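A favour between colleagues. Tell me how you read the following sequence-structure pair.

===
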Amino acid sequence: MLVSKPRLPLRDILLHGWLPSPFKKWFYRLKGYRIGKGVSFGFGAIICGRKVEVGDYTQIGFLSFVRGDTIRLGAHVQIGAMTMLDTPHLDIGDGTRFNEQVFVGGLQFPDSKLVVGRNCQIMQMTFINPTRSITIGDDTGIGGHCLLFGHTSWLSQFEGYPVDFQSIEIGRSVSLAWRVFLLPGTRIGDGAVIGANSLVKGIIPPRCLAVGFPARVVSTTPEFPREVSEADKERIFREILTEMVAYLDGFGLRCTIQGAVYKIIDQRRTGWGSRRKEWHLAVESAAMKPVLGTTSLLHADVFLSLRTIPPSVRLSLETRRQMWIDIESKERSDWGNDLGEEVVQFFRRYGVRFFRVKQSELVNPAGLLAPTLESRSL
């Protein structure tokens, strides 16, 4: 064979897959790979390519491998155990997750590529075959046991059977339920939902519900997705907070509510003694003014707002090392803490995923750093 590639990179696994994560990072940097801070490689996990870039705090799980010619993994990417990503060109956006046992590979060409946007999630046991290219937009979810095939070829084209090699494009904020099959040439618009066990071929328009074998559109706006009033948003927000308090209480955390501040007490036994930690979550559901200096904000570890948080307030919170979470904009501070990460994970249950915003991206109208909350409250 003139062109051959082993199915598994056994040589690389045996050479450095067994190394502890710090040594692995050192080895990869010697090879010229760009490895960010806080990156973690599980036992048996490897990455191999000609040009490799791995963003900060990315994790590659137990016995997983990433192989290609050009590879870019953004910041805070998570790749679960025993996942195989094998394609010539791979580009994964910040905050995207691949669950356990996801497989990317199969019949490909030298220019085959998989591009996944930010804050996406690919569930377990999904098979992706980017024969030409597969592009997945930001904030899109692919359910478990899904099949994304970029080719149709087995029987001879000389005998009249179809042979097809086409790209697949999936828009932003798309939801594929479990066991969805996408055929070559599929185009799915932003905000579309594909029901379980559907077979998709062709074009699915934006913001609709499509189900069936083959899939057809069964509901569109205004019925799907329905319009949510401001009063309904307020009610949903309060209901989720109530559920979150019950959830934390159920796992042994004491929660009390004092006005707009939720106090969470984490008290655990450690050896001969106990450890007590108090967290404060400030909650705001009304529209905010650009200048804010309330006492509740000054002492909160996390600020959670239903409405958009003005840039100047975001900057003030960043200055004090307070985590902020903005539901309307679906954004959060790049920096976080244990309570804030718990809140972020809980809101994922309700379809709300937050894009990280670095402090360098926060600029007020004057282009200057906003004053701290202490100075505003004087």
